[in-house]
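Good day; I would like, with your permission, to put a structural problem before you. A protein sequence and the structure tokens that stand for its backbone fold form the material at issue. Thank you for your consideration; the sequence and its tokens are set out here:
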Amino acid sequence: MTTLQQVAIRAGCSLATASRALNRNGNVSDRMARRVRRAAAELGYRPINSAAGRPGQRPVVGVLIPSITNPVFASSLSSIQNRMLVAGHGVLIAQSNYDPAREADAVASLLNDRPTGLILTVCDPATSVALTSSLPPTVLLNNMPTSLFPAAVTVDNRGAGRELTQMLVGLGHRRILFVSGNFAASDRARRRHEGYRDAMIKNGIAPLEAVEISFLNGYDQLDLSAALATAPPTAIIASNDLLALGVISALRREGLSVPRDISVAGFDGIAIGRLMDPPLTTVEMPDASMGAAAASLLLDMAENAAPARHLDVAYMLRRGGTVRAI
């Protein structure tokens, strides 16, 4: 059986340093921590307290998502669990409910079980207080990498917003409204809106002021009467598909038809959008692939001391029956 002393010798450090690196309970440089983890992986060493501090329990990883009820995050989570199951890891789940103030508490809860590493989707990595230097190996999912957390699996949300808006402009639309969850709660939504503005300005069209609502409720009772009262839009882009469905419902309550009166498009590519009549126009995001990629990247970093990487995954614009040319 491999001992901690053998790991320390192979990594070229003291026994105490090797212990701190593997248990993540002291100051160890990132470079040394990677050397120790690589030595442990090469020697097949696993400390008995690496999984929640109790011998005999399998190791775990922690996953933070904004909402467990959103099909987008459910898809990513399913892929993460499948990948971790193959690797012999359990998965701990926490959700922030799109609340930046709850992220730190959620991450602290995950850390109580001393996970091998973390996969985090936060509201905004630039401002999240949950992202501290004391975290174990961490991969950001759906968030852009930062100098402190360079490991991330993302999609080009700004480019997606730009491409979707450009398609609508090409169909003759000039008054295009962007309806979104609160930008402070999702940098993904904010980047999609930035892409919308890019395309509008590039085409010499004044962007309309965005309508922001809560991500957690109000989709089924969305009121667009104020936005439709003066100079109504000919097209509406929603920051995600669930919100796009809420937009379509709100338009019908106003006696409007989609796409005859107003075109509607969203982001994500959830299955229910394909089951609609007509099918929803959307930017399909590879959520399952992104979850699997994040899990594999985390395992490579945590167990093989692989360097952090930024993986950018392709999206696909899928035109359905909810938009038309004017």
Remarks:
- The two ends are 72 Å apart (CA to CA).
- Residues 157-285 form a domain with the Rossmann fold fold (CATH 3.40.50.2300).
